[in-house]
């Protein structure tokens, strides 16, 4: 019996089971520029203090601005935290800035979001996550390190940043020149057979 695509990929990954997912021989997957970017991007937790340029910030924001949102409602706002004063305030809400010169703070407005009619599921947080993913990949495409931070005190952010009123902060993205390579944990991935299924 001929094996499915996923079964063939699973065989390869189980046979080799290497730590570096990108090193696995895989004749059925064509490597694209995007796939290389996705594989090479990692959660950077150590940054140089080199400032980002206005052009770099604008490029990342444009990638975030054009991100898809449910019904194109765009219930999301991004704040660029980069002044020494603002970064100091943000450090009061999280220990995970890692010395980055800029933090992109993503908020969602549930009142402005699409709502699924079947069960009332609000799409604001998902939309913010999509915008955040664009931020990470755009930063990586520019050669900048980045990390998704979900550990922060939202009440402290609301108090210290009144500009965020009306939005729930969903995620923070410290961005800058990386001062460290990916840790070994980054390269461990599930096999195709574990990760995906045909139905």
Total beta strands: 4
Biggest β-sheet strands, sense, barrel: 4 strands, antiparallel
Under CATH, the topology of the domain at 54-176 can be stated as NADH Oxidase
CATH superfamily of the domain at 54-176: NADH Oxidase
What is the residue-mean pLDDT, rounded to a whole number?
89
Gross morphology is globular
Helix/sheet category? alpha+beta
The name of the CATH architecture of the domain at 54-176 is 3-Layer(aba) Sandwich
Order of helices and strands: HHHEHEHEHEH
Low-confidence stretches: 9-25
Calculate Rg over CA atoms. Answer: 19 Å
Explain this structure.
The protein has 199 residues and is of the alpha+beta class. It has a domain at 54-176: NADH Oxidase. Helix content is 35%, strand content 12%. It is built from 7 helices and 4 strands. The chain has helices at residues 5-16, 33-40, 54-65, 84-91, 124-141, 154-160, 192-195; strands spanning 76-81, 102-108, 145-146, 168-176. The protein has a 4-stranded antiparallel sheet. The protein is globular, with a radius of gyration of 19 Å.
Summarize the structure.
With 199 residues, the chain is of the alpha+beta class. The protein has helices spanning 5-16, 33-40, 54-65, 84-91, 124-141, 154-160, 192-195, and strands at 76-81, 102-108, 145-146, 168-176.
């Amino acid at each position: 019996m001929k094996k499915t695509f996923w079964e063939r990929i699973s065989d390869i990954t189980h046979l080799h089971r290497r730590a570096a997912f990108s090193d696995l021989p895989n004749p059925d997957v064509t490597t694209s520029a995007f796939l290389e970017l996705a594989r090479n991007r990692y959660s950077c937790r150590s940054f140089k203090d080199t400032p980002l340029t206005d052009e770099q910030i604008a490029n990342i924001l444009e990638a975030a601005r054009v991100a898809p949102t449910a019904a194109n409602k765009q219930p999301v706002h991004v704040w660029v935290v980069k002044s020494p004063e603002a970064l100091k305030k943000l450090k009061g809400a999280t220990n995970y800035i890692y010395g980055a010169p800029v933090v992109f703070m993503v908020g969602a407005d549930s009142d402005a979001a699409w709502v699924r009619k079947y069960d009332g599921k609000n799409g604001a947080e998902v939309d913010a996550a999509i915008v955040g993913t664009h931020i990470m990949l755009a930063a990586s495409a520019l050669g900048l390190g980045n990390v998704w931070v979900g550990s922060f005190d939202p009440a402290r952010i609301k108090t210290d940043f009144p500009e965020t009123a009306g939005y729930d902060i969903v995620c923070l993205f410290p961005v800058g020149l990386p001062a460290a390579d990916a840790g070994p944990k980054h390269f461990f991935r599930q096999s195709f057979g574990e990760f995906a299924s045909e139905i």
